[in-house]
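README, section 4: Worked example with a bound small molecule

Sections 1 through 3 covered apo chains. Here we extend the same pipeline to holo records, where the ligand is supplied as SMILES alongside the sequence. The molecule in this example is zinc ion. Nothing else about the input changes; the structure line simply encodes the ligand pose together with the chain.
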Amino acid sequence: MDEDALRRLIVELAASLFARGFSVGSAGNISARLTDGYLITPTNSCLGRLDPARLSRLDAEFRHVGGDAPSKEVFMHRAFYTARDTGAVVHLHSTMATAIACLTDGAIPPLTPYFVMRVGRTLPVIPYFRPGDPAMGPAINAAAREARAVLLANHGPVVCGKTLTDAVYAAEELEEAARLALLLRGASPRQLMPAQVEDLLRTFG
Ligand SMILES: [Zn+2]
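The generated complex, written as structure tokens:
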């Protein structure tokens, strides 16, 4: 996908997430890898009203080289790109996943195959850091070596994908899995067995 098309797709998918309530105000940020750098949503921008020409352009070392100033949470995106071979990162404050991130046991069990297929085997919870604290970067980087998504305690999810569309779908699946986990909290739902999880990861991972 060329850069112009990727810029348009970021704007389109961000607006779709915003319209469905996955982000409010200026919360959330999205990045995607280019052949020679990255695009990321600007600081204080609203996902519902992005301008493709004003997205922040970063070079391969994450230096700002064009467009508006990048999100202050750029380090959490960098932590994923340096931890694993990935094409896009989505960070949201979506309600259900953030609710899970506020629970002390903070984990989402493997309830549905699509959660396992899109989000993976594990969903580490990163300890609380003040938003914008760069110390969060190394903690995310360490967790992202083993996981495609993490929950930031009392903050929200960060999810990656091979493509921008994959990352957005994974963020949506994570939100729905969090909704199910909260609906079933206190019940004893049937979880996927470890062998079933491994079978999904072998087949679709
Ligand atoms: Zn945030």
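What to look for in the output: The pocket of zinc ion is lined by residues 73, 91, 93, 131, 155-156 (CB under 6 Å). The beta strands are 29-34, 37-40, 56-59, 64-66, 88-91, 125-126, 149-152, 156-161.

Section 5 describes how to batch many such records.
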